[in-house]
Amino acid sequence: MIKIYDSYSKDYKEVITKSINMYVCGITTSDYCHLGHAFSSVSFEILDRFLTSKGFNVTRIQNFTDVDDKIIAKSIEEKISAEEVSEKYIDAFFQDMDELGVKRANHYPKATDEIYNIIEFIKKLEEKNLTYSINGSIYFRVSKFAKYGKLSSRDINNSLSGTRVNENLDKESVGDFALWKSSKPDEPYWDSPWGKGRPGWHIECSSMVLNTIGDTVDIHGGGIDLIFPHHENEIAQSEALNGKKFANIWMHNGMVKIQGEKMSKSLGNLIKLKDALEIFGADLLRMWILSSHYRKPLLYDEKIINSFSKPLNRIKDAINLIPIAYEKKLESKKEFDQFNLALSNDLNTSVALSQIISLSKKINNSNNELDISFAQNNLNKMLEITGLCQNIKNENNDKDIFIDEEIEQLLEKRNNYRKSKEFSKADEIRDELLKQGIEIVDNGFNSVWKKV
RNA sequence: GGCGACGUAGCCAAGUGGUCUAAGGCCGAGGUCUGCAAAACCUCUAUUCGGCGGUUCGAAUCCGCCCGUCGCCUCCA
């Protein structure tokens, strides 16, 4: 049984249907990805990998918001078109996420490719008298949707009057939000029944879900900072449109924090993913992300991330050790089962990672007594589900090393030289094997062999 | 001001009423092995879960109050 915490019902929900579609809110293409994007992407990617490993048929969709104020501002600043800005950062997104080893989603729809559907969506809302128009902009009338505020536990009547809400006197009510924004001169625009303009932010996700998945999406995900107003607004417009439940499970990942504060655009304390990849590499970043639960805040600290380099080396050793055909095999069922159980329990990656490390230690410790090949198999499955060490594994698959009789004799010969203290002859054999891609690690006279 | 989350060892972190005298990792202290090399491995490191009460046969886990930190209410993953 696989359980996921649902932010809407504030309770755990079981993933039941064999076919699962996921819609994850993606990035605004106005800048390079930062570690918050990495956290979110890896979290939902691992759910995808895990469900797939359990036989579910997963369709994952992640959008690009490729038209908005920040993109327009950047296009003016850099004197290029908004499209060129978006294209640049979409390319960068894929480059960085690929390097992090994030399994690609099935579709990456763009807001600008969705304009027709968005206009149709708004027209239907209009027909239902859920909207009003001011100077060519169309707004959703929040008071028309009774359940507004349920996801974010907000009472619209008193909580939206806080000091930080920007009073927009044009709107009937502060909570109302734009479905369509009329364009100012020199801004990108699309023709619509309401004149030249562009979509509001929230409507693209509702439209994409409807047109790529249908009325109801199984799992809708995104950062916890999107709960209000973004996801609240998505629910309002989608459910008001067709009366169907919009998402069965709402899944929200926590925020990356740096020096006690949220890493965010407004605070300007971002660490770009591409910079972090350069400093730490994909595997350390991934272990850092796995080490904490996806709904909790993730603390950025170079020391913390680097603290995974030792356990990472253990894992690498465990998959690189060359197994010897002993009669008795090393048991790994317990770790493998615990690993799966942990991920089934609202994606407890921290415990899953601990099982990977424990099994790695067991493998490293038994290569001279037990057949580790079965345990390595399980370890590889665990690594694949968590996306760890995938580059190393791929490299190793290219060179299929095994210990044949000839090599075994060489190894025995070398240890005899060592026993008789003819070290230069022993070292010659070590160098020879190294050329063949085999590294010898001595444990007394019980040497083990690793793929290099 | 409204709403919400969190507070576990020096640090990161798991823990959805009993197997918790609390997983895993880092750091630290010992140790095994050792020609070199690099490791690897083992042992130790919270009788205690922010504080105070309560519920219960039993609480880190549930309830109340207090203290502290953070998030959302503005673009945000």
Structure, explained:
The chain is an alpha/beta fold. It folds into three domains: 3-298, HUPs (Rossmann fold, 3-Layer(aba) Sandwich); 309-392, Four Helix Bundle (Hemerythrin (Met), subunit A) (Up-down Bundle), CATH 1.20.120; 405-451, no CATH class. Helix content is 46%, strand content 15%. It has 17 helices and 15 strands. It has helices at residues 35-53, 69-78, 82-99, 115-127, 156-159, 201-212, 227-242, 273-280, 282-290, 302-306, 309-320, 333-344, 349-366, 373-386, 390-398, 405-419, 423-435, and strands spanning 3-6, 11-14, 19-24, 57-62, 131-134, 137-140, 177-182, 197-199, 217-223, 247-253, 256-258, 261-262, 298-300, 438-441, 448-451. The strands form five sheets. The protein has a four-stranded parallel sheet, sandwiched between helices. It has a four-stranded antiparallel sheet with strand order 5-6-7-8. The chain has a three-stranded mixed sheet with strand order 12-11-13. A hairpin with a 4-residue loop joins strand 1 (3-6) and strand 2 (11-14). Helix 12 runs antiparallel to helix 13 (349-366). The chain starts with a strand and ends with a strand. The chain binds one RNA strand of 77 nucleotides through helix 1, strand 9, helix 7, strand 12 and helix 10.
Q: How big is the Rg?
A: 27 Å
Strand residue percentage: 5-15%
Mean pLDDT: 91
Oligomeric state:
single chain
CATH architecture identity of the largest domain: 3-Layer(aba) Sandwich
Number of separate structural domains: 3
Do you know the CATH topology of the largest domain? Rossmann fold
Overall 3D geometry?
elongated
Q: Terminal Cα separation, in Å?
A: 40 Å
Fraction of residues in helices? 40-55%
Low-confidence stretches: 161-167
- DSSP summary, beta strand count: 15
Numbering strands along the chain, what is their spatial order in the largest sheet? 4-3-9-10
Q: Which homologous superfamily in CATH is the superfamily of the largest domain? A: HUPs
Structural class assignment: alpha/beta
Q: Counting H and I runs of at least 4 residues, what is the number of helices?
A: 17
Q: CATH top level of the largest domain?
A: Alpha Beta
For the report, how would you describe the main beta sheet? 4 strands, parallel
